[in-house]
Inverse folding.
């Protein structure tokens, strides 16, 4: 079975915490119903399912070819500054680091550096990025559906001005160094990029997928391609997963994963899901995972809280808690079967560190032993491990993994009874922020704040 | 009051979730008792309180002067490779990034790059680091109390061999490029660094402080100094905190913080503490925080689960969950009052992004408005915010903050009734790992594993 070769879900390290046969039957029925809701569009937020059948189709699209051309142009420069936040940031950075390593900007040989701005309001971070770009030819890829998201808009205004000063004596040159990924028809950024001269440098944030489901669209693909990752392979992996998980059934690992995490949450009294890997280069992928699941499920006072760990690093920090703290954790571990390289332990004449018993063994195999030992220890301590094994840490496997989690997340949301595609809670702080900043239209919130907290609330503390 | 100027703990954003006067009295008594246990050494693990009165004394020590000399030597090279894991890794990287920014290896002008190895068993990561060091003069600072911690020992064996190959025709030169921080008298690494020629290149991991409390010893100070951070200022900040929090009392912010988080845990049904900042360069500091509190409190099936977020970045990922997911979260927010720079929003003729209402405003002030708005929104949503304000993001403030959290953590552990200085659960996975790897002495665990899981457990899956 192809899927078995591409992604394997194993529950061996969760033995003892798994549903019995009867519970499993009930879970299957529930998962299959949620799968049908998703596939048939009968669930809440159905209009946002664009990502569901996107990967296979997009490979053949005109825009995909345009993304490749744009990336070829940008790769002639020394750096790309990606401006975006949330789903317009995490997915691209996660894939780039997962494939090229977390030091990719320092180890790169031929491809441009790829930096990310517009994902905070830190003056310190902005100044550092500006210093990094000083004296180098760089492009901007600004990614924002509305063009009004505060963080991205602030950074775009700032770095666009940097380009304009740099090319002050070359009319049009600053603009030629900007690529925009935005709404197909409307919005502030779309309006700023009107006109035929933008046609080759403008890409679409699809209407039918939220930010956290958008990494395989132009949103993620353009920066990923610029960094030198094979985006066709990424999409092929996702398209293969799309085919593999199209039908519900006993062998649908995506549904099984959704069923098991639902079981842990509802019957196993687990409240926190730890996304775990044994590769530091997967740390940002953990951040992407946290957005996907946290934003999709965390509503109506429900949902597993998503946390992430990078092992074995964090066995020396959070390991104690996972082993013996509050017993509300389970972990979802992603590993890769094939080694990235053949690095092995060398024999050492004096053996002062007593590692000679490992001489000749591959680091990869030692790392996998650490994984298995940890899963055994955590299960024994009451933290069961689900294990997702992929063949290798490359673009194709990551495409598969992205689609796997996206679909499992949507099904999980329906099982939980929430809309997995909205994020109503995100507006709350924005409303207060605009009121504190005195934005037009926020007068009512200002009055409410003054009534509740007094006028001191508008002062810096 | 000096403390008020250096660190301010504010509870305004937790109003409504705070203890009433009677509960506060009981909390005060409990906190004061824990404070006395710590100061007087009557609590469990008392022998590990070396960090408590360390900062002021260490500033005057011979070793501190030797750390400064060693750093001056290492700074002549192009790179330093720090080998260590857990407390021998996180603190140093956290301080370096917090002061110099997260891109410090790319923005640096005069100081060496500082890379961190030996904190995972990833073959991919190791190969990347080796590629980064190719052709550059670099030093190693290996940090391990025993010299047998697997991750650090594997990396040290590997990179020591790299140095030996590099200086194959210059006897003694490889060794001269290695600095060791290890036990004062015993252990495998200490034995490897015996002899007078190591005297100037060997530093002490104190016996009386665990890894997570060791960042202000040579463990953290040497790498931090090499990166170009003022370690005297770091220690001065910690020493000032040491003086400020020596006595219990209403105005001891450290005790108040311990009391409030205990209240949230025991009476507020909060299970997860979110460490939050609004500076991306503080992200690694969040990892240090997680180790400190998670490893100190997470035992006997108790303790707040420590998670960390970097805002506003993560308002666009975990923000939805924090606002509306399970209501078991509170957040501890660290901010800095003074701006890192004067970056301000520029006016733009067309105002396509509608940001002109912010023209002339500093990014720093907008970021602070985001903080206050978020705290208001989260409190309204049932996630109260404690707020720790420091004057500025520099070495002195970070020294203060480190000591503040260390002491609050120790007091918290005593309030919870656990030993805040041990980590018994960390051995569990190690025992299984050594059994899977076939290390001598693990025969009994191997037999137990075979009995429980069959011999398949020893096969790669």
């Amino acid at each position: 079975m192809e899927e078995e070769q591409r992604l394997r879900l194993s529950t061996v390290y969760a033995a003892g915490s798994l549903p019995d046969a009867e519970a499993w039957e009930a879970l299957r029925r529930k998962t299959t119903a949620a799968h049908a809701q998703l596939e048939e569009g009968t669930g809440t937020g159905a209009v946002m399912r664009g990502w569901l059948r996107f990967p296979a189709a997009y490979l053949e699209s005109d825009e995909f070819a345009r993304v490749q051309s744009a990336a070829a142009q940008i790769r002639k420069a020394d750096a790309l500054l990606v401006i975006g936040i949330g789903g317009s940031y995490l997915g691209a950075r996660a894939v780039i680091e997962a494939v090229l390593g977390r030091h990719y900007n320092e180890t790169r040989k031929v491809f441009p550096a790829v930096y990310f701005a517009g994902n905070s309001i830190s003056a310190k971070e902005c100044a550092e990025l500006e210093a990094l770009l000083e004296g180098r030819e760089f492009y901007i890829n600004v990614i924002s559906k509305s063009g009004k998201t505060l963080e991205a808009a602030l950074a775009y205004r700032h770095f666009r001005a940097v380009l304009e000063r740099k090319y002050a004596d070359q009319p049009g040159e600053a603009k030629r160094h900007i690529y925009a990924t935005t709404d197909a028809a409307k919005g502030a950024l779309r309006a700023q990029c009107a006109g035929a001269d933008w046609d080759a440098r403008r890409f679409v944030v699809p209407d039918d997928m939220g930010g956290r489901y958008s990494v395989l669209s132009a949103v993620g693909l353009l920066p990923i391609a610029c960094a030198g990752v094979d985006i066709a392979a990424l999409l092929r992996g996702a398209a293969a997963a799309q085919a593999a998980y199209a039908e519900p059934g006993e062998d649908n690992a995506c549904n099984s994963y959704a069923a098991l995490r639902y079981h842990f949450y509802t019957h196993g009294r687990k409240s926190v899901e730890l996304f775990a890997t044994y590769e530091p280069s997967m740390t940002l992928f953990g951040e992407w995972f946290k957005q996907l699941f946290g934003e999709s499920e965390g509503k109506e006072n429900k949902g597993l809280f998503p946390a992430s760990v990078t092992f074995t690093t964090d066995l020396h920090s959070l390991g104690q808690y996972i082993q013996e703290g509050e017993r509300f954790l389970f972990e979802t571990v992603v590993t890769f079967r094939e080694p990235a390289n053949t690095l092995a332990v060398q024999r050492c004449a004096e053996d002062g560190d007593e590692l000679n018993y490992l001489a000749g063994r591959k680091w990869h195999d030692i790392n996998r032993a650490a994984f298995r030992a940890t899963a055994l220890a955590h299960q024994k301590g009451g933290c069961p491990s689900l294990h997702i094994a992929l063949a290798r840490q490359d673009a194709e496997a990551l495409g598969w993994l992205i689609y796997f989690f996206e679909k499992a997340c949507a099904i999980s949301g329906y099982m939980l009874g929430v809309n997995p595609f909205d994020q109503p809670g995100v507006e709350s702080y924005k409303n207060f922020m605009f009121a504190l900043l005195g934005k037009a239209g926020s007068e009512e919130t200002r009055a409410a704040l003054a009534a509740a907290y007094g006028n001191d609330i508008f002062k810096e503390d």
User: Anything to note?
Assistant: The beta strands of chain A are 7-10, 79-83, 113-117, 138-143, 178-182, 202-204, 272-277, 305-310, 329-336, 385-390.
